[in-house]
């Protein structure tokens, strides 16, 4: 850096250090000259590329915020609480047939389906009879609410990315960051009641709006067979 027309060394950079970060944000003259003291290799990021990826991140955050705002069970959150949720949320992709969470395992994540379908299974009481399919979940629906139960809990069913379809994309919240969702646990429980799901499906069928995705409710009759209710 120049001081009274004399170059003065004000800093020394080594491997892993950065310089020139102001240029990513502002078009202003450099406030120092950088001289290589030995043969060096540096990674360079232009302002244009930096701004491009910043826009991508911002646009993705807006898309996720709009998506979360469309999830009925999330809507009671305040704006600040939803923003906190956006900061903690992660995206995960599961291939067709992948087991996402298993009945009896510690509930360590909450899931919201963005794309794809999930199959909900529950172990039969008689050992060796395998799992029974309870229902299917689709985009906009959630599972793993045991993660935000008042007391430490385990998953009460197994969830698998539906076989034969595309990959399932989920937004996930780890249990250690799910405090903002805990007050919504009772509401989540009500959302999963079969009678409420039947009511929602009936209202969709009776409306003039396009159905975004089917809702399938399966119950087990006295003989143990699956009965499609809706």
Question: Care to describe what's here?
Answer:
The protein is α+β, with helices and mostly antiparallel strands. The protein is built from four helices and twelve strands; from the N terminus they run E-E-H-H-E-E-E-E-E-E-E-E-H-H-E-E. The protein has a four-stranded antiparallel sheet with strand order 3-10-5-8, with helices on one face. A four-stranded antiparallel sheet has the order 4-9-6-7, with no helix packed on it. A hairpin with a 5-residue loop joins strand 11 (218-220) and strand 12. The protein is elongated, with a radius of gyration of 26 Å. Mean pLDDT is 80; it is low at 208-230.
Cα-atom radius of gyration: 26 Å
Helix-strand makeup class: alpha+beta
Report the sheet-strand fraction: 15-25%
| Beta strand count | 12
> Low-confidence parts lasting 5 or more residues at pLDDT below 50?
208-230
The H-and-E topology, N to C, reads as EEHHEEEEEEEEHHEE
Helix content: 10-25%
Shape: elongated
Outline the fold blueprint.
Blueprint: E1 2-3, E2 6-7, H1 47-69, H2 79-88, E3 90-94, E4 99-101, E5 109-115, E6 118-123, E7 131-137, E8 142-143, E9 158-161, E10 168-174, H3 185-191, H4 194-206, E11 218-220, E12 226-228
Antiparallel strand pairs: 1-2, 3-10, 4-9, 5-8, 5-10, 6-7, 6-9, 11-12
How would you briefly describe this protein structure?
By secondary structure, the protein is α+β, with helices and mostly antiparallel strands. The chain contains 4 helices and 12 strands; from the N terminus they run ββααββββββββααββ.
